[in-house]
């Protein structure tokens, strides 16, 4: 991560400081205290609830108004015996294995294309940004209208004489999960590509020109010359996309399929939501939250490792 | 040179990219045109342009999902959350940008690592917090909560802008007798306006588009719910009217669309820098 660290050399006493200590103090009164409200706000509303996940996961809590009792690892035992949990693990796995590589590879190639400024690249850039502006419910409504039995997809299939291939895409257990992945990709590729294009814009042009003089084709220039330069950045974006997809999928699932049919599109993040707000099994729900958190951590480290700058 | 670069070998790339561009454009076109059609027209010819431009669907969507109060609620939550975000993040960034102490550097680390905590991870505990504070089913809790989710990104972006302000500016103001607050107000805030604009635009998008927390915490009451919560209610289990659904969706996009068109360059830069800074 390109984190901004504020580690600066501490002002040494022997440094050429023209002002006396008193004068220095008067010039720069310490204002660190001004950062405290923001930090407290952040700890109370973000970090506190995160920590609470781990506490609640160790409780028996069968509903908001029920009393709680300490459960130890019982919730996790229940979890690992639950076929629905394993179904959710599988679905999340499929989602990650398909969505993430496809998104990053396509977005990188698309970003490279746009960064070369081909004819019409302004229109493309404008369109690529559109999914980044639309809210999740609006995107879900786009897909709901497009994939419903009388929707755009089936209409298009009928128009080209493939009416027999028409399907109730979101209501079919074989396709529901893939519809959700398609939504991720539809929206994610464009936006990610713009990020890569912006980063590639700042790569010195001589690099590409030198490659062309060497007779390297665009394919080679793209993967062998430009990619290594922005590899670390690609890794950062991949990490963020991973987190957004892993934790955010609850919203799309809730809006489009509610996990169905027959749990075929239940993801881990939706399972947290479902158990908490639909089935009131609160300890169980937050135990899934802990699993999700750990999956996120392991995934982050793995992605970070595989994109480590190698030169 | 430019034309040389795009030889025949680029043909597959052109085709693929434009195919994707069409895939992005078609649903939008479909939405805009369907908003003026009836269900029958949409089903029989999904892609033909509408035959008449009546605002009937918009009116029905507006009334049946109470979109009027919903837009107002979204505006209230967004504006107050933005104000609070700036009120917390500007002084914090000011403090962290100027300070060289160890405490400040630890604080900055905390904010930098905050990117890695996904906003939607702790929905249920946040819901408990709203219940415990007696603010469940209020917009106020969202106004308090949303700035916290925006804090890491906002502080880090602002700190980077404020570090570029030369310390001599402050020294000069100090000699003229300016207080710390005066320095913040008359030097730092005006000089990092581009950073503030970036933070406002980014968070405007996130706050306006926020769905899951609004759904749980503000709840479905038509007097309180935001536009993103109201929108999916147009989709019904028994026979959705797609003309009305699409008209409603188009309405929710209008504010974002206006801001994007007016501030396109700046917005693109904001969105990109929001991710780059991570």
UniProtKB/TrEMBL annotation, chain A:
InterPro entries with a match to the protein in the record: MetI-like (IPR000515), MetI-like_sf (IPR035906), UgpAE/MalFG_permease (IPR050809)
Region: Disordered, residue numbers: 1-26
Stretches with biased composition (Polar residues): 1-15
The name this protein goes by in its record: Sugar ABC transporter permease
Coiled-coil region(s): none
Sequence intervals crossing the membrane: 34-61, 93-114, 126-147, 175-198, 229-247, 283-303
PANTHER family named among the record's database cross-references: BLL4140 PROTEIN, DIACETYLCHITOBIOSE UPTAKE SYSTEM PERMEASE PROTEIN DASB
Taxonomic lineage of the native organism: Bacteria, Bacillati, Actinomycetota, Actinomycetes, Kitasatosporales
One BP annotation, GO: transmembrane transport
Ranges where the ABC transmembrane type-1 domain occurs: 89-303
């Amino acid at each position: 991560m390109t984190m901004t660290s504020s580690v600066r050399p501490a002002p040494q006493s022997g440094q050429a400081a023209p002002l006396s200590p008193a004068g220095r103090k008067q010039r720069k009164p310490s204002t660190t205290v001004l950062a405290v409200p923001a930090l407290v706000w952040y700890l109370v509303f973000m970090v506190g609830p995160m920590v609470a996940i781990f506490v609640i996961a160790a409780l028996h809590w069968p509903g908001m108004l029920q009393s709680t009792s300490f459960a130890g690892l019982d919730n996790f035992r229940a979890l690992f015996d639950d076929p629905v949990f394993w179904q959710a693990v599988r679905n999340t796995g499929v989602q990650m294995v398909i969505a993430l590589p496809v998104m990053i590879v396509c977005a990188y190639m698309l970003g490279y294309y746009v960064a070369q400024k081909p004819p019409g690249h302004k229109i493309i850039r404008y369109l690529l940004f559109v999914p980044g502006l639309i809210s999740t419910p609006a995107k879900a409504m786009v897909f709901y209208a497009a994939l419903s039995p009388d929707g755009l997809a089936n209409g298009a299939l009928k128009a080209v004489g493939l009416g027999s291939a028409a399907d109730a895409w979101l209501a079919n257990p074989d396709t529901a999960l893939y519809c959700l992945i398609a939504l991720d990709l539809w929206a994610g590729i464009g936006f990610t590509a713009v990020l890569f294009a912006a980063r590639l814009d700042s790569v010195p042009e001589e690099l590409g020109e030198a490659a062309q003089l060497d007779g390297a084709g665009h394919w080679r220039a793209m993967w062998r010359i430009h990619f290594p330069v922005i590899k670390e950045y690609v890794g950062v974006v991949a990490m963020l996309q991973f987190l957004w997809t892993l934790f955010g999928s609850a919203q799309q699932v809730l809006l489009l399929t509610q996990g169905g049919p027959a749990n075929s599109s239940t993801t881990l993040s939706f399972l947290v939501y479902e158990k908490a707000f639909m089935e009131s099994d609160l300890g169980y729900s937050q135990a899934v939250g802990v699993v999700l958190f750990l999956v996120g951590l392991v995934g982050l480290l793995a992605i970070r490792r595989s994109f480590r700058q190698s030169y | 040179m430019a034309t040389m670069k795009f030889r025949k070998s680029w043909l597959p790339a052109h085709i693929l990219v434009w195919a994707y561009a069409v895939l992005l454009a078609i649903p939008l076109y479909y939405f805009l045109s369907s908003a003026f059609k009836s269900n029958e027209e949409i089903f029989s010819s999904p892609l033909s342009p509408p035959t008449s431009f009546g605002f009937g669907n918009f009116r029905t969507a507006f009334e049946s999902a109470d979109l009027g109060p919903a837009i107002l609620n979204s505006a209230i939550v967004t504006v107050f959350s933005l104000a609070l975000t700036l009120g917390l993040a500007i002084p914090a960034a000011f403090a962290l940008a100027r300070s060289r102490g160890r405490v400040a550097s630890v604080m900055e680390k905390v904010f930098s690592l905050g990117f890695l905590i996904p906003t939607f991870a702790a929905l249920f505990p946040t819901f408990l917090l709203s219940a415990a504070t007696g603010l469940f089913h209020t917009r106020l809790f969202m106004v308090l909560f949303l700035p916290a989710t925006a804090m890491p990104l906002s502080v880090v972006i602002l700190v980077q802008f404020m570090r570029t302000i030369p310390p001599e500016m402050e020294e000069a103001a100090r000699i003229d007798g300016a207080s710390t607050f005066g320095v913040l107000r008359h030097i730092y805030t005006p000089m990092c306006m581009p950073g503030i604009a970036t933070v406002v635009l980014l968070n405007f998008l996130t706050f306006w588009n926020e769905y899951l927390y609004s759904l749980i915490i503000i709840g479905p009451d038509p007097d309180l719910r935001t536009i993103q919560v109201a929108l999916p209610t147009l989709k019904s289990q028994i026979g959705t009217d797609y003309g009305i659904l699409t008209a409603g969706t188009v309405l929710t996009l209008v504010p974002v669309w206006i801001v994007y068109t007016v501030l396109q360059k700046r917005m693109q830069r904001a969105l990109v820098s929001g991710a780059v800074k991570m």
